[in-house]
């Protein structure tokens, strides 16, 4: 493969450093098309979130990329290995934590870990060392000798990930890693995921939680109706939907009044002495606003940029009633093209 380099919003990615590459991925169950030719490119050492409503095909994509089920079509490479010809090498490079826990509740946390060590053909001594190290890392040492059925949901999830790490995978698939966890356990899990990536691991996670994708992911893909309807960083996605604006606030009523007269397209908020100017928040738009303020000798006391949140994006892209919802392939292309334009 050619090692071409392209720049996405200042971030350089090399096509020879992709941990996961899917082109034209298709899968149907009977006459139901679940994945209708999707492309995914996940740079090594990054967190990629696959976002979508129930039944969008997120788990199916993870199952295919982790070799659990086969695709109907598509060129798929994971860890540099072709899924069609080298599934064994892919399996050796990855770890998977599914929606349904691999933890056996009848045995202790430590025994679950040792079982994984056996599956990875580690020697008894090495298995014990790795198990103890991971139990410690995931704050499970005190509970290690208790049956896993007595663990809380958060502890089980931590044990599940610890078990996934026994084989030291460089690419990890996490299917809805925080579903059902309380806010504290979710934050713990987020820190665990960030820790994995800072150690050089690539994480592809699926989630229905927009804040999770916003918090964690370097790149987010929104899956709906079998297609990827948008892909980019959280802030790139937020620029896809209307509602972004720049807010200028003034301390002095006189300055506010003269700015309001000069900026006729701005929405006034007389109570807070603020003006709201529609804007996508791009550097070019901000520069235009600042140049304009300078030219008019207007000095705001505060300038803030507001972008729509990921909820707005998600509903706009996945709601069947929304005008922005890509109900036809043509609209899908429009949404994707709009994002690409933004990214350039
Ligand atoms: N083995 C199967 N046989 C038939 N249909 C299936 C099978 N696996 C998945 N499906 C269907 O494919 C669609 C996508 O399912 P999938 O589990 O991939 O979605 P998801 O995005 O992960 O959803 P959720 O967020 O609810 O987990 C669903 O309509 C599901 O019923």
UniProtKB/TrEMBL annotation:
Keywords assigned: Antibiotic resistance, ATP-binding, Cell membrane, Hydrolase, Membrane, Nucleotide-binding, Translocase, Transport
Membrane-protein topology: Peripheral membrane protein
GO biological process terms held by the UniProt record: response to antibiotic
One of the record's GO cellular component terms: plasma membrane
Cell location: Cell membrane
SUPFAM superfamilies, alphabetized: P-loop containing nucleoside triphosphate hydrolases
EC number assigned by the record: 7.6.2.2
Molecular function in Gene Ontology: ABC-type xenobiotic transporter activity; ATP binding; ATP hydrolysis activity
Residue span, ABC transporter domain: 20-250
PANTHER family the UniProt entry points to: ABC TRANSPORTER ATP-BINDING PROTEIN, DOXORUBICIN RESISTANCE ATP-BINDING PROTEIN DRRA
Protein name, as recorded: ABC-type xenobiotic transporter
Organism: Streptomyces hundungensis
Lineage: Bacteria, Bacillati, Actinomycetota, Actinomycetes, Kitasatosporales
């Amino acid at each position: 493969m050619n090692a071409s380099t392209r720049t996405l919003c200042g971030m350089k990615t090399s096509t020879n450093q992709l941990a996961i590459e899917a082109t034209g991925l298709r899968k149907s169950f009977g006459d139901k098309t679940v994945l209708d030719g999707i492309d995914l490119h996940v740079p090594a050492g990054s967190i990629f979130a696959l976002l979508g409503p129930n039944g969008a095909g997120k788990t199916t994509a993870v199952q295919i990329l982790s070799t659990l089920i086969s695709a109907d079509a598509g060129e798929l490479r994971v860890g540099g290995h072709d899924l069609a010809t080298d599934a064994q090498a892919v399996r050796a490079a990855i770890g998977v934590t599914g929606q349904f826990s691999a933890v056996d509740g009848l045995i202790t946390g430590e025994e679950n870990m040792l079982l994984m060590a056996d599956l990875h053909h580690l020697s008894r001594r090495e298995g014990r060392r790795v198990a103890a190290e991971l139990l410690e890392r995931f704050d499970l040492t005190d509970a290690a000798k208790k049956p896993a059925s007595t663990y809380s949901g958060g502890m089980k999830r931590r044990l599940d990930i610890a078990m996934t790490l026994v084989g030291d995978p460089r690419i990890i698939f996490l299917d809805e890693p925080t579903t059902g966890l309380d806010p504290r356990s979710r934050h713990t899990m987020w820190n665990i995921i960030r820790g994995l990536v800072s150690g050089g691991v690539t994480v592809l996670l699926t989630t229905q939680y927009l804040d999770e994708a916003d918090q964690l992911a370097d790149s987010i893909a929104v899956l709906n109706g079998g297609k990827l309807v948008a892909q980019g960083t959280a802030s790139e996605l937020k620029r896809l939907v209307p509602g972004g604006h720049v807010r200028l606030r003034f301390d002095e009523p006189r300055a506010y009044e003269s700015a309001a007269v000069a900026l006729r397209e701005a929405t006034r908020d007389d109570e807070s002495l603020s003006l709201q100017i529609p804007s996508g928040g791009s550097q070019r738009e901000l520069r235009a606003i600042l140049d304009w303020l300078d030219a008019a000798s207007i000095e705001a006391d505060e300038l803030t940029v507001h972008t729509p949140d990921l909820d707005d994006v998600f509903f706009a892209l996945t709601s069947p009633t929304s005008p922005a919802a890509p109900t036809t392939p043509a609209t899908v292309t429009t949404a994707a093209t709009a994002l690409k334009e933004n990214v350039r």
